[in-house]
Design brief:
Elements (H helix, E strand, L loop, with lengths): L1 E8 L3 H9 L4 E4 L12 E3 L2 E3 L11 H10 L4 E5 L2 E5 L2 E4 L11 H20 L8 H9 L1 H16 L20 H8 L12 E5 L5 H9 L6 E2 L6 E3 L4 E4 L2 E10 L3 H7 L5 H8 L3 E11 L10 E3 L7 E5 L1 H4 L9 E7 L7 H14 L9 E14 L5 H14 L2 E3 L1 H4 L6 H14 L1
Parallel strand pairs: 1-2, 1-12, 2-9, 6-14, 12-18
Antiparallel strand pairs: 3-4, 5-8, 6-7, 10-11, 11-12, 13-16, 13-17, 14-15, 15-16
């Protein structure tokens, strides 16, 4: 039985980062034909598509140094251009800080609700929010919650925000104070709010360029592609692959937490029951090629909260980095609503109408092709069971020398930088 100090399951950013920062013997096993995980880039007729929007937001100096070392001079800095389309008009993102331009009756409802919420918070006479719906109403008011926060997130998760806790918000939901909300309602916003006000992206090759650069720094003999383990024994300290046993002292997994549990032959019933409680919406999207140079009024992405659209976000990576599409063309990624059962034909029809209505295209003939894609893991649903079930599973594996990391291995909501940091921390812990 071949033995390794460390086996790494998955060659996405967290797995690659673990290998880069680990100083001992290791073996990476990746089920797909090349590394990168969800940071791979798909080439369709010269249009480069990612798994929806993959923009690199850096805050940690360790990751900044790593990226600069891996891709010196190859990253471009992009200032975010994002908008919300609702009530037939575009407003700036984030919605809650940019109410200017909405119909007067909607603006009044949102502004009055925001003022009432601010007074309530200042009084201190309120209970802590029990879920994300209550959280949104407390911080933004009834109007903003009704016109954007609730419908948008319902489309994203496929469940009501009343079923979701506020655990996931962390740095991802900008909370303007009442002064900023008023300024935004008057068209006087002074800053681009949110963690993604600017981002980095490779000048060429799509986001997979980063994963390739990480993989190229590794010993290629220590990585096996097209290698999905058939089983894992945490008590025996081995996995089976192609009928052979590979033993390990430590194991780092970036598999989705339910997949890791399903792989484990000796997972106890309590862990299987905890795994069954974990919920996640799928990632369903459409890659689209357009015969126009700059759609979406030049925006990098558009949020669509209204239920009449069977998609919640439409983005254009080529608006940020033109090299992602052939000259004179452009690309879109269209993220499909998880509370909708619209057919492919209805989705394309609705998308075409939206693009014509908003002036991105003049006719359906300018849609060159559409390619539907789906991934089982999209957005973790942070319901009341999530935190305890997740922690029970992660603690169980940690006690067996198995670290579960990454967005889905950690069963969380995070960024590409966070995945890289997870790898750094895993290597350090080992």
């Amino acid at each position: 039985m071949k033995k390794h100090d460390l086996i790494i399951l998955g060659a996405g950013l967290s797995g690659l980062s673990t290998a880069m920062h680990y100083k001992g013997d290791y073996l990476i096993l990746e089920k797909d034909e090349r590394p990168g995980g969800l940071t791979r880039t798909e080439d369709i007729e010269g249009f480069l598509f990612n798994h929806t929007g993959h923009w690199l937001h850096l805050r940690d100096p360790r990751v900044t140094k790593l990226v600069n070392d891996l891709l010196p001079g190859q990253m471009v800095t992009v200032e975010r251009k994002a908008a919300v389309y609702s009530n037939g008009v575009f407003t700036l993102y984030p919605f809650q800080a940019n109410l200017y331009g909405l119909p007067k009756e909607v603006l009044r409802e949102c502004l009055q609700g925001a003022v009432s919420a601010a007074i309530k918070r200042a009084s201190g006479d309120y209970d802590q929010p029990a879920n994300f719906l209550e959280y949104a109403k407390l911080h933004f008011g009834e109007g903003i919650a009704r016109h954007f926060i609730v419908p948008y997130n319902t489309k994203l998760w496929g469940v009501s925000p009343a079923e979701v806790t506020a655990e996931w918000t962390q740095r991802f939901v900008p909370i303007p104070d009442i002064g900023q909300i008023v300024d935004g309602a008057l068209g006087m916003s002074k800053e681009a709010m949110g963690y993604n006000a600017s981002f980095l992206y490779p000048a060429e090759g799509g986001i997979e360029t980063l994963a390739k650069a990480m993989f190229d720094r590794l010993d290629q003999d220590k990585a096996r592609m097209n290698s999905a383990p058939e089983s894992l024994s945490v008590n025996g300290g081995f996995i089976t692959l192609n009928g052979q046993k590979l033993s390990f002292d430590k194991l780092v997994s970036s598999l989705a937490l339910p997949d890791l549990v399903n792989l484990t032959v000796d997972a106890p019933d309590r862990i299987r029951k905890a795994s069954a409680l974990l919920r996640c919406s799928p990632l369903r999207y459409v890659n689209v090629a357009l015969d126009v140079p700059t759609p979406l009024h030049g925006n990098h992405w558009i949020y669509l909260p209204e239920s009449k659209y069977p998609f919640y976000r439409v983005g254009s990576a080529s608006n940020a980095v033109p090299a992602l599409a052939p000259p004179g063309k452009s690309s879109l990624y269209v993220e499909l609503a998880n509370d909708s059962i619209a057919s492919k034909d209805d989705i394309i029809s609705s998308l075409t109408e939206f693009l014509i209505e908003t002036g991105s295209i003049q006719s359906a003939k300018q849609v060159l092709f559409t390619a539907f894609r789906e991934h089982p893991w999209g957005y973790v649903i942070f319901d009341d069971n999530c935190a305890n079930a997740r922690q029970e599973i992660i603690d169980f594996y940690a006690d067996k020398g198995v670290l579960s990391i990454g967005r889905y291995g950690g069963w969380t909501y995070n960024s590409m930088e966070d995945a890289i940091i997870d790898g750094i921390n895993a290597a350090s812990r080992i």
